[in-house]
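Q: Make up one entry.
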Amino acid sequence: MPEVDPRDDSIWRWVLNHYRFDPERCERRNVIVAAYDNEAEFNTALAAYSRSIRAEVDAGTRDDAEHVSGVLWHPGHHAEQARGRTLRRASGHGVDPRRVPLDGPLPSNIGFFGWDSDGTTRSFGGGEPPEPPPA
């Protein structure tokens, strides 16, 4: 099963996550295990990794809270998320989000709206998520 780089923001990728304790960050979180550019390969890897983790949990060598999951990331996902974080930080500091330069779209789950002093409404961001790749 050929894997792809999960940080490659130019392709569709199915990302395999393992929810576990991350010693680098001293917290439980989804840790990326692998990424695939093919859904069938992803499903095969997900099933195999899940069986492995389940067997270790059942044997008592892993924590009961550990599990495996996956997510589909579209091209540009990381860049959109970075723009969303930038706008969230700017608005948290009281900066008008319209003044923050953006070099592309926001994630589909982030939108900004408000009213100008004359009562005119303004909004940007949000929208429909990208269509998944053809099967």
Observations:
- The radius of gyration is 19 Å.
- The longest helix spans residues 39-59.
- The CA atoms of residues 24 and 31 lie 11 Å apart.
- Residues 13-73 form one domain.
